Every structure is written in structure tokens, then in C-alpha cells.
Amino acid sequence: MEIDKVTSINLYQATSRLKVVINESNFSGALTGWNNETLALHKKPNTTYTGFVWQGSAWLTTSQGEFVLQEGMYFMVSDQARLQGNGQGFVIAQPGYRGMFMLGGPVEQKGRLQYIDGCTDTLLIAPATLGDPCFNLLHIPTNTFQSQHTHPSFRVGMVVSGMGECITPEGNFELSPGQVFYIPKDSIHSFKTNQNDLRVVAYHPDSDFGPTHQNHPMINRTIL
């Protein structure tokens, strides 16, 4: 299904019925839920799939072989692939981008970088070059009320653990483990926690960070 911007955050359950087409001015994507089934990731020109296993385990089969994904692991693949097993999670497809094959995780309990209002985040999949997509872990401590903010592009992700709320102009939305979310670009929102902390993973279709031909570790650390 194709959705319009109804609210500042749109929440779903990660089931096989979850198929959402995202069309924004600069980026598009297709969000798919996965739950104890086989999900075929078809090879398409310049399309990259990024996925996360929330619970259970899965097998990712690509032209490079078969890889086991445990709970809390993530992947990026631009090849034809098949995801199967007794796990649950989500996959986001982004056309117009060819990413590198990558596996990682499980995600840690807290982020390694400082974020707003005492939160932390980890760059799980970094942009290969400046402007490329990235995948992140966000940790929100207990008793946190984030400042209201926006993002210049959409965010798609999943609640990994904990409890909290997303505060928006349309109202407050309860967050619990296993929920998949889509936040349209420029949507005003913030996260709030009480006695429980909150962990989410989030996919960004772009970035203002990453190496360039003139600025990357290999060339920067080469002395002529």
C-alpha cells in the first residue's frame, strides 16, 4: 500500500501483511515486514535492501553464500537474496542506491556517540561515500523527554527494546518492542521515556557525512 503523511509517526506490526511504499520528494522506498516466513529480495538495478532481525533467527542466502542472522543482527545487500527462518523483523528497499554487502550485530545496549538530551547512538552501517544511506542504533535513557525536532528525510526503523512514547502535534503514541515505524520528513516529534529506557534502530536514506575522493583515511594517511 502507498501511504500519505497522515501523522508525524506511523506505527506498524512486523508481519507479512506489512508492505508500505514510501514516496517523498527526494527519496522513495518500500518497507516490508517479515515474520516466520521466506522473503524473496529480488535483484533490481541500483536497489539496496537493508534489514534487521528483531527476534528469532534467520538465514540470508545470497550469491556469496548462506549467512546466519541471530537476534539483533542487521544486513545490507544489493544482490538477489532470500531471507528465511523463524525470526521477525523488517526490510527497507531503496532504489537509486547500490550499497555494499554487509552483516553486523547484535546491536549493543547503548550507543557509542552522544546525541541530543543525553541520548546516544551508534552508526551501525556507515555511508560508503558522502550522502549515502546509513543505519543507526538510538538509545534513550530512562526519564528522558527529548527536545522536539525534525529530520530532512524520512526515518524507518523498529523498537528493539524498552517502552516509551513518541510525542507529536497529533498526539502521543505509545512505543513497545517489535513495532515498526515510519516518520515522514520534516515531521515534528520527540521520544519520551519514564521508568524504562528505549532502544530503536533507524534507517536514514541519506546523510551529510561520509568519505569523499579527496577526504578518506587511505589518502589522508598517505604521506608523499
UniProtKB/TrEMBL annotation:
SUPFAM superfamilies: RmlC-like cupins. Residues 140-197 form the AraC-type arabinose-binding/dimerisation domain. Gene3D superfamilies: Jelly Rolls. It comes from the Bacteria. One of its GO terms (molecular function) is DNA binding. Pfam families: AraC_binding. Keywords: DNA-binding. One of its GO terms (biological process) is regulation of DNA-templated transcription. This is AraC-type arabinose-binding/dimerisation domain-containing protein. It comes from Microscilla marina ATCC 23134.
